[in-house]
Automatic annotation (TrEMBL):
The lineage of its organism: Bacteria, Bacillati, Bacillota, Clostridia, Lachnospirales. Coiled coil: none annotated. Residues 165-284 form the RapZ C-terminal domain. The gene is rapZ. It comes from Anthropogastromicrobium aceti. This is RNase adapter RapZ. ATP binds at G8, M9, S10, G11, A12, G13, K14, T15. SUPFAM superfamilies: P-loop containing nucleoside triphosphate hydrolases. It comes from the Bacteria.
Length: 290
């Protein structure tokens, strides 16, 4: 029997994750009282259900969460039960936006601003976050990307180390992304913008991609960039970093940056140990895509 405890910040997507786990064949229970967890596990072990995989949604809504959660997890692991903790995280800005969209109050805000509740919860959850087996930051994840991450971890058994890498293209004329960890300027590469037939296209189109990558400089740069990023990722994992944004910029964010971001994504895709997504921030800004 395998037990996954789904926890994390309120608004980070725990309910969505539980629904996805249910679709994957997990027997899911949300907001089970903490004092009933061990009894529930005993019932499962005694054949109370045919489920082999169980997911329990436990979070700050439970009044005994802080005092008992770590103790219960430790006890389950001491009994040699395959118990993993999945922690869903998100930035303060993202959580605030989600609460505003749903018009719900934070469980710890107690009539105060949402920001106050988030700050309280983050402080209370810090210890559990540090002890979690898997951490997924959902700030920039699409629903399908979250599902893919859960499948990689829980179905395919990838050796996931809690780092999520975003390869992001952008245009310098629109500003450097505020969440970028590494920024690379590819404005030194041949620019398709100066060709009328390629100007309306993007780096997702073959003519632009082939033109940019026909340059020996682009090929050498991609090779060196890939080497550096693959060298850095394990060190970021060891440091405990949960999110890495690699921003690649050109003037408008349509041609060269998109081409290189796509190429780097393909080089990194399929590696175990971290999640990966691709995003083109400014690709549609000037409205001239075909």
């Amino acid at each position: 029997m395998r037990i996954v405890i789904v926890t994390g910040m309120s608004g980070a997507g725990k309910t969505t994750a539980l629904k996805m786990l249910e679709d994957m064949g997990f027997y899911c229970v949300d907001n089970l009282p903490i004092r009933l967890i061990e009894k529930f596990v005993e019932l499962i072990q005694a054949g109370g259900t045919e489920a082999k995989d169980v997911a329990l949604g436990i979070d700050i809504r439970n009044p005994e969460f802080i005092g008992l959660m770590s103790e219960v997890i430790t006890q389950l692991k001491q009994e040699e039960i395959d118990c993993k903790v999945l922690f869903l995280e998100a930035s303060d800005e993202c959580l605030i936006k989600r609460y505003k969209e749903t018009r719900r109050s934070h469980p710890l805000s107690q009539g105060q601003r949402v920001e106050v509740g988030i700050a309280k919860e983050r402080k209370l959850m810090a210890e559990l976050l540090s002890k979690s087996d898997y951490v997924i930051n959902t700030s920039q994840l699409l629903t399908r990307e979250l599902k893919a991450q859960l499948e990689d971890i829980l179905l395919k058994g990838f050796d996931y180390k809690n780092l999520f890498v975003t390869v992001l293209s952008f245009g310098f004329k629109y500003g450097i992304p505020t969440d970028a960890d590494l920024v690379f300027d590819v404005r030194f590469l041949p620019n398709p913008y100066y060709f009328e037939n390629m100007r309306p296209l993007t780096g997702n189109d073959a003519p632009v991609r082939d033109y940019v990558m026909s340059s020996d400089t682009a090929k050498v740069f991609l090779e060196k960039l890939t080497d550096m990023v693959t060298f850095l990722i394990p060190h970021y994992i060891d440091e405990g970093k949960s999110q890495l944004v690699i921003a690649i910029g050109c003037t408008g964010g349509k041609h060269r940056s998109v081409t290189i971001a796509n190429a780097l994504y393909e080089k990194l895709k399929g590696k175990e140990g971290y999640g990966l997504r691709l995003d083109h921030k400014d690709i549609e800004k000037d409205g001239r895509r075909k």
